[in-house]
Amino acid sequence: MKSAFCLMACLPFILVSCSSYQKVSLSNFEEYKVSVNERGDLHYVLKTSKLQYSDTDRRYEVNNYGTDKSSPFESHQIQIQDNIVIPTGAHGACVGSKDDQLIIDFGKGVLIPFIVLNDHNRATGKIKIDERLYSLEVSNRNACLYFDTRKLKTDN
What we know:
Radius of gyration: 22 Å
Distance between the termini: 42 Å
Structural class: alpha+beta
Shape: elongated
Largest sheet: 7 strands, antiparallel
Strand content: 35-45%
Number of strands: 13
């Protein structure tokens, strides 16, 4: 009974260690011998948290008029939430790579720059799409990019 309980308790750790995905970081790229040119050939996936960007400058002004008046008797602004949401588990392709930055295409014209650091990565706080500026929601700053190591293992 104890051995079954220990096995069940250790099973998540065993499955994570067998995962073919590694967190995108400069140290992991060095460990798997991924050059800057080869980063575009890898398969990427978004994990830990979804990415949600909002266009906070988009507003509509609403004016209420009386039936026989040409000036409004009431006026107020309504904030319109225009969101871009990339769910956890979304697959992306690298369309641009520099030493410390990857630009990932998650489809439909959404290109997200990721800043790659020594031990982790993070999405940039602002993106621009079709002359609109979108800001990353604070609750989604934990989103991480992972790359698939299966192709690397077969190549080596």
